[in-house]
Amino acid sequence: MANQPENQNLQALIRDHLNGRTYAELARECGFNNRATVQRLATKDPVDFPSTETLLGLARGLKVSIGAVVSATAVSVGLDPNPYGSSDLIIQNGKTLPKESQDMLINMATQMLWWHEQYELKIDRAQDKLAETENKLARTEHDLEHIESDLAISKEVIERLQAATGTKRSDVTLAADTSGRQGEGGTFEHDDLPHTP
C-alpha cells in the first residue's frame, strides 16, 4: 500500500489505486455486483457517507486501510477527517512487518515516550524553581526597600536632634568615649574632675 496524501478525497484515492484496472475489474475485487458504484464514487463526490459494506469493499479492492477510505470519504463530503489533531503516530503498513520488528518498534516508541515525559517533568520542575527564586528575589527587594526607608528616617531623626541641641556627631562620640574611659585608679569619680573656681 502506498502512503495516502493528507486531505486526499475519495476520487483521488480511487484514481491513485486503480493501477491500470477498469472500473469493472475494480468492482469485482471490491466484491460489488456491478461497476456502477465504483464509477459513481470515482467520478462524483458522494452526498453522504456510503454504507459500511461499500467502504470495506473499497478498502479491499484498492488495497488500502479502511481508515484511508473513511478519511478520503470525509474529505469528499466536506468534513475535516481530523478536526482536533491526533496524538497517534500511525506507521503505514506496520502490521505487515514481522512480529519481532513490530515489537521492536513498539518498545522503541515506548522508551522515547518515557524519555519525553521525563524531559517535560524536568522542564516543569525547573520552571517551578525559577518561579520560587523570582518570588524570593521579589521579597528580598521588598525588605531592602523597607530597610532603606528605615535608614533614611533614622538619619533624618539624628540630623534633627543635632540641629536642636547644637551637638555635632563628633561631640556625641567624644562624650561617649569619655564617659566610658577609666583612669589609673578606676572609673572617673566626681573628685577626679577639675573644680570650677
What are the SSEs and their pairings?
Elements: H1 10-16, H2 23-30, H3 36-43, H4 52-62, H5 66-76, H6 99-165, H7 169-180, E1 182-183, E2 186-187
Antiparallel strand pairs: 1-2
Helix pairs in contact: 1-3, 1-5, 2-3, 2-4, 4-5
Mean pLDDT: 79
Q: How would you sum up the major sheet?
A: 2 strands, antiparallel
End-to-end Cα distance: 125 Å
The share of residues in extended strands comes to under 5%
Which stretches are low in confidence, meaning pLDDT under 50 for 5 or more residues running? none
Radius of gyration, in angstroms, nearest whole number: 45 Å
> What is the approximate shape?
elongated
Q: Considering DSSP H and I runs of 4 or more, what fraction of the residues is helical?
A: 55-70%
Describe the model.
- The protein is mainly α and 197 residues long.
- It is 63% helix and 2% strand.
- It is built from seven helices and two strands.
- It has helices at residues 10-16, 23-30, 36-43, 52-62, 66-76, 99-165, 169-180, and strands at 182-183, 186-187.
- The protein has a two-stranded antiparallel sheet.
- The mean pLDDT is 79.
Could you provide a short overview of the structure?
The chain is mostly helical and 197 residues long.
Please tag this protein with its features.
mainly alpha; two-stranded antiparallel ribbon; 2 strands; 2% strand
